[in-house]
Write a structure and sequence with these properties.
globular; 8 helices; about 220 residues; alpha/beta
Length: about 220
């Protein structure tokens, strides 16, 4: 995020997310504003994203988002996505609309995504594609047919944040026990998945994608 006085420019990426299906401008605030204890809100993540947008609209005179869709992320994101050459960059001052358009391009119905639907219902932006004015390329036929899927981390998260086991959240996440889950996430994502799968995916992207080759040229 970049701040200009009381204005904020967000720079999200077009990709899937294991808990919110997609992640974009609204989800960007989850990491940007909540810092280290944001995991407290995972069970109510959609409502949290809406609340964060309300806060931003109160404290910032202007919001604008540029979404990088040159390489989009398919699969169980945000950390174990498969890169897909999409060749789009989106921009909007409406944080809900840009997420809705990105979701539709990825192959999802925006109004089926709870955080977009709630934000639209509370008039924080436009979540319905028919209410969004598009300027630029004709994307009416764009459908990347993304799917989220699961990984080890999402399966554990589903149990602890959304199943009946969520009654133990304060024990697991509001005490020093949380360090076990942080260490487990680090081990899975950085030491197992990245080394076993991520490095190969990244190297192939750098060789085969024009955006990867551009990355390599810097």
């Amino acid at each position: 995020d970049y701040f200009f006085g009381k204005n904020i420019i967000q720079l999200p990426t077009m990709k899937c997310h294991i808990y919110t299906t997609t992640t974009g401008a609204m989800k960007n605030a989850f990491g940007g504003l909540l810092n280290v204890k944001r995991h407290y809100t995972h069970s109510w993540i959609h409502e949290t994203l809406v609340d964060l947008l309300k806060i931003q609209k109160e404290i910032h005179t202007g919001l604008f988002a540029f979404m990088d869709g040159t390489t989009a992320g398919n699969g169980p994101g945000p950390r174990t996505v498969i890169p897909v050459k999409a060749d789009y960059i989106l921009a909007s001052e409406d944080q809900v609309a840009i997420d809705a358009v990105a979701a539709k391009m990825m192959g999802f119905n925006p109004m089926d995504l709870k955080y977009i639907r709630l934000a639209d219902e509370e008039e924080l932006g436009n979540g319905r594609p028919e209410n969004i004015e598009l300027v630029g390329d004709d994307i009416s036929g764009v459908n990347f047919k993304f799917h989220v899927g699961d990984n080890f981390a999402s399966r554990v998260g589903d149990l602890l944040w959304f199943s009946p086991l969520k009654v133990f959240q304060k024990l697991f996440f509001h005490t020093p026990l949380v360090k076990i889950f942080v260490a487990a996430s680090d081990t899975y994502h950085d030491k197992y998945w990245w080394k076993k799968h991520g490095v190969k995916i990244f190297e192939e992207w750098k060789k085969e994608s024009p955006w990867g080759r551009l990355w390599e040229s810097y």
